[in-house]
Amino acid sequence: MTYERRATRGIMVGTVPVGGGAPVSVQSMTITRTADVDATLAQIFELAGAGADIVRCTCNDPEAAVGLAQIVPRSPVPIVADIHYHYQLALAALDAGVACLRLNPGNIRKPAQIKLVAEEAKARGVPIRIGVNAGSLDRDIEDKLGTTPEALVASAQRELAYFAEVDFHDVKISVKASNVPLMIEAYRQLSEVVDHPLHLGVTEAGPPPAGLIKATAGIGALLAEGIGDTIRYSLTADPVEEARAGRQLLEAMGLRERKTVDLIACPSCGRAEIDVIRVAKEAEAALADRKLPIQVAVMGCVVNGPGEAKMADLGIAAGRGRGHLFVKGKIVRVVAEADMVSALVDEAEKLVAEGVEARLAAADEGAEAEAELDRRALLDIQGDDPNAVAQRVQLIRKDLS
User: Fold this and answer.
1) Beta bridge partners of 323
2) pTM for this one?
């Protein structure tokens, strides 16, 4: 299944296409001092490794602009300069060679300054993100419309009008808010009146896990409606978590090709023979840094596990002190329970390197028969209803009769 994307005009942020049907890109922002070139570059490389396509750095003083001039040519991804209040720093960032500017209409308000920055960006072929924020709206717009979706859209449209006066249209837009319903409705309204690519985000989402939930609720809802061309999780956390979360969301929604492991696990039940939570966490940690574009399952029992997770590329199910390793639902190996995670990692790497058919062909002889003996033994011990559902249903019916 795919989501029908809203048609937008395309722009280029350095080498990364945004809008115009391009894959949705992931962004994050450094939290180092930009003037500290080595520390900032180290974080940029970390972010790129975690899945960020574009990275934003603050340009809040002249030293930061000087730092950008040294960072840009060494960065593995395009760099966006984040500008607040001082239009001169936007001009300095352009001189530093950044791939994009981010301007907040709420804190650079003089039309002449806004248009000058747009003219200079146009001369260099550099796009600008109009970064509207519910917490820093134009005063007159907020006085008239309040902190509403309409106010966020009006702020973006005012900035667009200034750009249009100097024939600058290489723009992407965000209308962020920390309130999820407000953010969603603002983007919906904006998507109806402009064809510029949209940058999605829930601003000031906070620390995980609540911040992850809020950001995913807002960004995911809009992506499912076909709205959004580039995204950023704004978390109170290591920005690497932002990049990783953005990449995982896009992969989960089928909007980007999988590059990392998608680990699924059962919620456990009366049949579980292991601590599913513990084993799943161990598997997640062991697979986290491996670039393996597959779905891996950790299942608590051998009775239902391989069948329930047969859509996974690879999985392991526990029973009677052993783990049943399966590829596409077919048992290929039986290992000791203590070796479950290491066997899973080993098979994951081989599966990616060799392919499904090769790994099925390499299955241990007798593995399926051995696994079936475990399965039948557990059925004999636990029966068909280990959670006593039938007894509960009878009790309920008795109580209600």
Assistant:
1) 318, 335
2) 0.87
Q: Shortest CA distance to 172 belongs to which of 56, 11, 5?
A: 11
Q: Which two tokens stand for residue 263?
A: 């680990």
pLDDT tens digits, one per residue of 66-120: 999 999 999 999 999 999 889 999 999 999 999 999 999 988 889 999 999 999 9
- Cis check for the bond before 197: say yes or no (omega within 30 of 0): no
Question: Residue 288 burial by CB count (10 A; 0-12/13-18/19+): exposed, middle or buried?
Answer: exposed
Q: Is residue 183 domain-resident?
A: yes
CATH number of the domain within which 343 lies: 3.30.413.10
Domain containing 36 equals 11-252
Please write the tens of the pLDDT for every residue from 272-301: 777 888 999 999 999 988 889 999 999 988
Residue 387 lies inside a defined structural domain of this protein: no
Alpha-carbon span 160 to 138, nearest angstrom: 14
Beta strands 11-13 and 16-18, pairing class: antiparallel
Whether residues 169 and 57 share a domain: the answer is yes
Q: Which long-range contacts (CB under 8 A, 24 or more apart) does 36-45 make?
A: 36/67, 37/67, 37/70, 37/71, 40/67, 40/71, 41/71, 41/74, 41/75, 43/239, 44/71, 44/75, 44/76, 44/77, 44/79, 45/76
Q: Domain count for the chain, please give it.
A: 2
Structural domain contains residue 369: yes
